[in-house]
Design brief:
Radius of gyration: 32 Å
Order of helices and strands: HHHHHHHHHHH
Distance between the termini: 54 Å
Structural class: mainly alpha
Oligomer: single chain
Strand content: under 5%
Number of helices: 11
Largest sheet: none
Number of strands: 0
Helix content: over 70%
């Protein structure tokens, strides 16, 4: 199989982090608006063909048995690449032997010219050993070339099948939709497709500022959450490049752990909004809604001290990285200063969400809503977070 030399451009990495969540959110909104049993989608079928067509995933997505055609081809490619990869060590060892015998031959030829005793015998033995090692090297190289060519032929067969499926996929999608519609008529009592409601754990805010902050952090949390899907594509490419093309990357892992670091920093406010921070509650869960609100107000001082400290130190940290134009020390050389800027940005979002929580807690503890019977649902387990237990 031919090797892959693709290296993810920096601009494509940053563009994917910005544009992919927007496209994904738009697709989810479209499916949510339909509110019906999901039908197979032609764009998704083509996505499966591009990303997993070598394994027949596009055919399996359409519930077509033709997907099994790709399985033996994939197994043959993986096996051929494994054989070629194993032969590399043998070729390296055989080449080292031939080079060592060549050095011995040159040394003994010089000794023969000087008339040293026994030099001719040693020269003849070295030539015989060199001929044997060279024959072994050529045999192993021919074997490796055979596996390379055979794997390439199987790959061409797979590419031809994929090219045919590129043309046949629209008609296959139509047939699958017709089959699913007929099955839905036979089983009319199936549960219709429903997307989960948005943020069922969040409390309805009572303050306009809190509502605005909640809405912003809810959108940011949804936006950043779709970065996880990007990791699926990146690691998928790494596995394919490594095991199908013998071309491991030097950027896939670095790009993803940087992305997860930024996701961790930017999603802290969303986790606070949905009360998802982990804590161990002893007395807090035994309080009523108003008691918990009072506890949150009294302990919010520690939250704001921590968040302001994170903001100030994070800003200094990011400012130094921006001034230096800091990049990674790997061959990929991605810009680190962009990553470090997410520290103060995440701190600002967390600080604003803390303000929204404080406004709601003040209203619940001391405002008109404190006289309502149950304005705030009680925690159902001990892992829900808030300002009081952070």
């Amino acid at each position: 199989m031919p090797s892959l030399g693709f290296v993810l451009p920096h601009w494509l990495y940053w563009a994917a982090l910005l544009l992919f969540p927007l496209v994904a959110m738009a697709m989810v909104k479209r499916e949510e608006a339909r509110r019906r049993h999901p039908a197979v989608s032609l764009p998704i079928a083509y996505l499966f063909l591009v990303c997993g067509g070598f394994a027949g995933l596009h055919r399996f997505y359409l519930k077509s048995a033709w997907g099994f055609l790709y399985v033996p081809l994939l197994v043959a490619i993986i096996y051929g690449n494994a054989q070629e990869r194993n032969l590399r060590e043998t070729i390296s060892a055989a080449r080292a032997n031939t080079l060592s015998y060549e050095r011995v031959i040159h040394r003994e030829e010089a000794a023969v010219k000087r008339g040293r005793s026994g030099a001719q015998e040693r020269l003849d033995a070295a030539k015989a050993q060199f001929a044997d090692a060279d024959a072994k090297l050529k045999a192993v190289q021919e074997q490796s070339a055979w596996w390379h060519g055979a794997t390439g032929i199987v790959a061409l067969v797979m590419l031809a099948a994929l090219a045919v499926d590129v043309v046949l996929l629209p008609s296959a999608v139509r047939r699958t939709r017709i089959r699913e519609e007929s099955e839905a008529q036979v089983h009319p009592h199936d549960v219709p497709f429903e997307l989960p409601p948005e943020d069922v754990a969040a409390r309805p805010p009572t303050h306009s500022i809190a509502r605005a902050i909640d809405g912003m952090n809810h959108w940011v949390g949804q936006f950043i959450a779709y970065w996880t899907v990007i990791a699926v594509f990146a690691y998928f490419y790494e596995v394919v490049a490594r095991f199908l093309f013998n071309s491991p990357t030097n950027w896939a892992h670095e790009s993803m752990f940087l992305m997860f670091g930024m996701q961790y920093l930017l999603c802290g406010a969303y986790a606070l909004r949905t009360e998802s921070h982990v804590r161990v509650d002893v007395l807090y869960v035994k309080m009523g809604p108003r008691g918990r609100a009072v506890a949150d107000v009294l302990t919010s001082f520690f939250f704001f001290v921590f968040t302001l400290t994170l903001l100030v130190t994070g800003w200094r940290f990011a400012q130094d990285a921006v001034n230096m134009g800091e990049t990674s020390f790997t061959e990929w050389g991605i810009q680190y200063w962009v990553v470090k800027l997410t520290i103060p940005v995440g701190a600002v979002l967390l600080l604003l969400q803390g303000v929204a929580h404080l406004l709601r807690d003040i209203d619940l503890a001391f405002g008109p809503s404190s006289r309502l019977p149950a304005p705030r649902p009680a925690a159902t387990h001990e892992t829900h977070g808030s300002l009081g237990g952070a």
